[in-house]
Amino acid sequence: MKRIKFLKSHTPYNVNEVAGFAPNVARKLVDQGIAEFIEPEDAPSQNKAITDQADKTDTKTTSKKSK
To answer: Residue 15 — φ and ψ, nearest 5°?
Structure first.
């Protein structure tokens, strides 16, 4: 998903509204001058970045022996 900010009204969006679209849809809106990307086009999506961070987090648990 790519976040874009609308530069022109485009029903149902108004100028300066932010929305997320599939990369191909976002690219069309940007190419038409209707919107601009919020982050660089080649930047990983926010969901991908969150997933990557979660993968790096150590989720191991230690078990205690009962005596």
So the answer is: -55, 140
In a domain, 8, yes or no: yes
How many distinct structural domains can be found in the chain?
1
Residue 36 dihedral angles phi and psi, to the nearest 5°: -135, 150
Segments forming the whole domain that contains residue 21: 2-41
Q: Does the residue 62 lie in any domain?
A: no
- Written as tens digits, the pLDDT of the chain (67 aa) is 999 999 999 999 999 999 999 999 999 999 999 999 998 766 665 555 554 555 554 455 455 555 5
Question: CB of 57 within 8 A of CB of 18?
Answer: no
Q: Judging by beta carbons within 10 Å of its beta carbon (0-12, 13-18, 19+), is residue 58 exposed, middle or buried?
A: exposed
Residue at 9 is within a domain: yes
User: pTM, whole model, 2 decimals?
Assistant: 0.61
